[in-house]
Give the backbone structure.
Amino acid sequence: MEHPIFEGARLVTSADGTRIYTDAAGNPSKPSIVFIHGYSLSSIVYDNLFSNPSWREKLFLVRLDMRGHGKSDKPEQESAWTQTKFAEDFDAVVRAYQLRKPLVAAWSCGGAMVADILAFHSSISLAGIVYITPIPYLGFFQHIATDYVLDVIPKLTQKTDVNTFQIASRDFIQGLVSPKHYLNRVAFPQRLQQACLGDVMSQPRTCAAYTLQRSQDEFGLMRAGREGLPMLLINGKDDMLLKSQPLSKLFEKWKNMEVVNMDTGHMPWWEAPQAFNDVVLGWIAKVLGGEMKRMQLEAHL
């Protein structure tokens, strides 16, 4: 039985009324994967994956703008920035698209949202985690932040000097890729740079501050690792923003983990797209091998 290719964006309402922007592409009968973006940006960073037939044919792709980012609502009261709220946002997306045990691909600061999810759900609620140059939980940021990003972030979150904010915004965007890729129009297209800059510029500074300063508990995340939740960790050897070495120590007791160090900066799926696709889709095929074969058989009945 053939299933139609799904495409479309929608606003999903979370438990507290916050509207979360979402977008989906691919075949809903396939295994699902939810993409979470990074600090001050939006799900537009995944445009090249959502337009790639290799991804759309194998998986049902869903992406969201985290609360306070992109096209989602941007609440500025502190009570809207709790771990519960982020978990409820994810739950609303899962319900809206009728996802069953999805994979989660989380990049950079978006990695912290996985800790929110696992604070309220057991490891069996997810099929696996694809961590892309991640911050696994916010309390760990200081251990992996480079001097470059520690210099930029205070300038981004301050509210008094517009010129300093604008310069820091450009510096932050430049740091998203390896220096050797910054001027490469394929690895870091100008339209993507401008879109990211627009996301940073349009986000309220209060939301930018809460994104990194909100309270988090990592217990559920680390428990999932001990229980064997599959995880693929992708690091960038030339990452300007985050250091990968401390992650090895943090995840040393994670039972089911694969680590790949790529010759990129902070955005490997743009800087080395074919290598990234091979690594991630290959890992997903291993993790979901039986499930994907079952779905392929059903599709031909």
Q: What stands out?
A: The beta strands are 6-13, 19-26, 32-36, 60-64, 103-107, 128-132, 231-236, 257-262. The chain has one domain: 6-299. The first strand starts at residue 6 and ends at 13. The radius of gyration is 18 Å.
